[in-house]
Specification:
With 430 residues, the protein is mainly alpha-helical. It has helices at residues 2-12, 23-30, 41-54, 63-84, 94-120, 126-150, 157-181, 191-208, 226-250, 269-285, 290-293, 295-318, 331-341, 348-378, 424-427; strands spanning 36-37, 184-185. The chain is 62% helix and 1% strand. The chain has a two-stranded parallel ribbon. Helix 7 (157-181) packs parallel to helix 9 (226-250).
Length: 430
């Protein structure tokens, strides 16, 4: 059944080629071992809770299915906010904000449990690490958009776009330095702390109302909404400083300071750099102010493209392969750029929706193909625990990262990064 589904998907999308990964890449990916260093403050505090909750999870619930369930909950609650405020200017009902806070908490918890569940059921494979990173690349987009909607940053588009593109870039940069160093690094203030900050932001807004963020700070005179924005920007700058020190000063672990694949440490900058330049140019040069009127759709479109490029970087790292400079994820934004170049021959709003669907479809297709190829090569299932669980497995060390959803590597475990969905039936190969 899995093979039939895989073949059907390839026949539908023959233009994408029969295979995404070569046999050499699949072999290196299957041999990949997860490596991380550092631990955040809140993670140590949350570990006892996570270790207790994982015991309530049925042993038949596959780690990747846990990650995907968390992402779906996160996405649904954020889409509810988008429905109430598609321009990031409208007031939100309190219940929708409470629901969004709950959704993010559920995502954080399930993302932390998947690695523990993988060890508990003896079902760890590199696919779990990839799946976890991919899901997190999407969650970053959902979370930053929901924050902008909550703060009504549609009235401050420069700040909204700065915050959104910085969030996408810093997540990408974290994996860029991993591609160079071979080790994913975490700081004292990291993803867990950021998620809790935004959960508190949702709850404060639900209780006090959106007018809370319009309050002027005494003596300084600016609106209170700028406080979480400034904190986010400062955190991003500090994280970027740490990542760039590894990339540009320490250099990679490959020959002559190259990446794990032996390529230039600068190579990953090109695809994300092109995407961000397109994003800023399109917004600034829009004649009909379409992107001013539809900021959420605009950010979501570029967020889907960013997630695809980030996933390809993760695959390049895990398979020790060269990062491709150009990607079809740039097709949608490139289409918008060409339309502007030819004096908006087509309606920009229509093309923006088309861009969103193209980028989303391209991301889903890529995730589907990657997961299927890995499952077929390693003879594993993505969403089922194929082997009987081994009991009395040692509980995870609180200091060990719990990078969720990882049907993955031994010590891979935490509430942070991930690889995206897939069609469960087509991927079930065991």
């Amino acid at each position: 059944m899995a093979a039939d589904g895989f073949s059907f998907g390839r026949r539908i999308l023959r233009f994408g080629g029969d295979r995404v990964l070569t046999k050499e890449q699949l072999k290196r990916l299957a041999e990949h071992k997860y490596s991380s260093e550092g631990s955040s403050l809140f993670e140590a505090l949350m570990q006892p809770f996570w270790r207790e909750v994982v015991e309530w999870i049925p042993v038949w619930w596959a780690p990747n299915a846990i990650t995907l369930a968390g992402l779906i909950v996160n996405a649904v609650t954020v889409f509810i906010l988008m429905m109430f405020s598609p321009d990031a200017k409208g007031e939100l009902p309190a219940w929708s904000l409470v629901l969004c806070a709950l959704g993010l908490f559920i995502y954080q918890t399930l993302d932390a449990l998947d690695g523990k569940q993988a060890r508990r059921t003896n079902s760890s494979t590199p696919l779990g690490e990839l799946f976890d990173h991919g899901c997190d690349s999407l969650s970053v987009v959902f979370v930053i958009v929901s924050m902008c909607i909550t703060l009504q940053l549609g009235f401050n588009l420069e700040i909204m776009y700065l915050e959104c593109f910085l969030a996408m870039f810093i997540f990408y940069a974290a994996h860029w330095q991993t591609y160079c160093s071979g080790t994913l690094k975490f700081g004292l203030i990291d993803v867990t702390e950021g998620q809790w900050s935004i959960i508190i932001l949702f709850l404060l807004t639900a209780y006090f109302g959106p007018s809370l963020w319009l309050t002027r700070v005494p003596l300084l005179g600016f609106q209170l909404k700028l406080v979480p924005v400034v904190i986010g920007v400062v955190g991003t700058i500090l994280a970027a400083r740490s990542y760039f020190r590894v990339i540009f000063i320490q250099g990679g672990v490959g020959r002559n300071g190259s990446t794990v694949a032996g390529t230039s440490v600068l190579s990953p900058l090109i695809p994300m750099g092109i995407l961000i330049v397109l994003g800023v140019t399109l917004w600034k040069k829009s004649i009909g102010h379409t992107f001013d009127n539809h900021p959420v759709l605009y950010v979501m479109s570029f967020g889907m493209a960013s997630s695809k490029i980030t996933n390809k970087l993760v695959v390049a790292h895990m398979s020790k392969s060269e990062m491709e400079m150009l990607d079809c994820a740039l097709l949608g934004p490139g289409m918008l750029f060409l339309n502007q170049y030819f004096d908006t021959f087509f309606d920009e709003h229509f093309l923006l929706w088309l861009c969103f669907f193209i980028c989303t479809f391209d991301l889903i297709l890529y995730a589907y193909q990657i997961c299927n190829e890995i499952c077929l090569f390693m003879n594993i299932s993505c969403f089922r625990v194929a082997r009987p669980p081994i009991r009395n497995i040692a509980r995870s060390n609180p200091a060990t990262h719990s990078i969720g959803g990882i049907n993955g590597c031994e010590n891979f475990d935490s509430s942070r990064t991930s690889m995206k969905l897939s069609s469960s039936k087509c991927i079930e190969h065991s």
